[in-house]
Write a structure and sequence with these properties.
CATH class of chain B: Alpha Beta
Largest interface: A-B, 20 and 31 residues
Largest sheet of chain A: 5 strands, mixed
Number of strands of chain A: 5
Strand content of chain B: 35-45%
CATH architecture of chain A: Roll
CATH class of chain A: Alpha Beta
Radius of gyration of chain B: 15 Å
Number of domains of chain B: 1
CATH architecture of chain B: Alpha-Beta Complex
Helix content of chain A: 10-25%
Number of helices of chain A: 2
Number of strands of chain B: 9
Strand order of the largest sheet of chain A: 2-1-5-3-4
Structural class of chain A: alpha+beta
Oligomer: heterodimer
Radius of gyration of chain A: 12 Å
Order of helices and strands of chain A: EHEHEEE
Number of helices of chain B: 3
Number of domains of chain A: 1
CATH superfamily of chain B: Molybdopterin biosynthesis MoaE subunit
Distance between the termini of chain A: 41 Å
CATH topology of chain B: Aldehyde Oxidoreductase, domain 3
Distance between the termini of chain B: 25 Å
Chain lengths: ~90, ~150
């Protein structure tokens, strides 16, 4: 089962998640700090975020993720201090 | 000479990009500019707003410059993207590529703008009289043109 999301200032066991564009708008949040669970991956972390923010549902299929400024898939293991980005379809240019 | 990668909330200077890649070794110089259109899907656009994940956007643009150097041998490339509110008719993106001969300059410029639009985390929002919408149907990081 998904564990609850805790806000924390404990950098030793937490990660920062940044949300952009439509993902930020739907959730009303640009940044969250989350505790890492055991064996946390991008996928397990995002599932916890999506439970707290069901409004992300419409975007889910098109979202990509980055860890420390590099695109990655949702099996990527997370370490304390990682910076995770929730990236909707890009549209620069 | 060399590369210029810039994300700015100021108007883009085309001269800045061009001058950066000019050199007496480069016989060909290709510039692409993208600008904000007043109409999309037959709706009238008032202005656009661009948001960037700046540190990652810069590193993705640097990867494009790396690929351009590796694939086409083109070292002299400028990529400038504007963010924030951009009025209609202004330049939102500039790519300038220069090489000894035109073929490589054209290829480098085309590759750079196509890849930028597919992989660089920048988002565009269109503002209409009666609403606003984030643009973008292509999932990021899956280049169509690579």
């Amino acid at each position: 089962m998904a564990s609850p999301i805790h806000s924390t200032n404990n950098q030793a066991e937490s990660v920062v998640v940044q949300l952009f564009a439509k993902a930020a708008e739907l959730t009303g949040t640009r940044q969250m700090t989350l505790h890492l669970s055991d064996e946390e991956t991008v996928g397990t972390l995002f599932r916890r975020i999506a439970i707290k923010h069901p409004e992300l549902g419409e975007l889910k299929a098109s979202l990509r993720f980055a860890v420390n400024h590099e695109f990655c898939d949702d099996t990527r293991r997370l370490n304390a201090g990682d910076e995770i980005a929730v990236i909707p379809p890009v549209s620069g240019g | 000479m060399g590369r210029l990668i810039k994300i700015t909330d100021e108007p883009i200077s085309i001269d800045e990009g061009v001058q950066h890649v000019e050199s007496h070794l480069n016989g060909g110089l290709v510039t692409f500019t993208g600008s904000t259109r007043s109409s999309t899907r037959s709706k009238s656009v008032k202005y656009l707003f661009y948001e960037a994940y700046v540190p990652m956007a810069r590193s993705e643009m640097a990867k494009i410059a790396d690929s351009v150097a590796e694939t086409f041998g083109v070292q002299d490339i400028a990529m400038i993207h504007r963010i924030g509110k951009v009025p209609i008719g202004e330049t939102s993106v500039l790519v300038a590529a220069a090489a000894p001969h035109r073929a490589e300059a054209f290829k480098a410029c085309r590759y750079a703008i196509d890849t930028l639009k597919d992989t660089v985390p920048i988002w565009k929002k269109e503002f209409f009289e009666d609403g606003e919408v984030w643009v973008g149907e292509t999932p990021a990081g899956k280049p169509k043109h690579a």
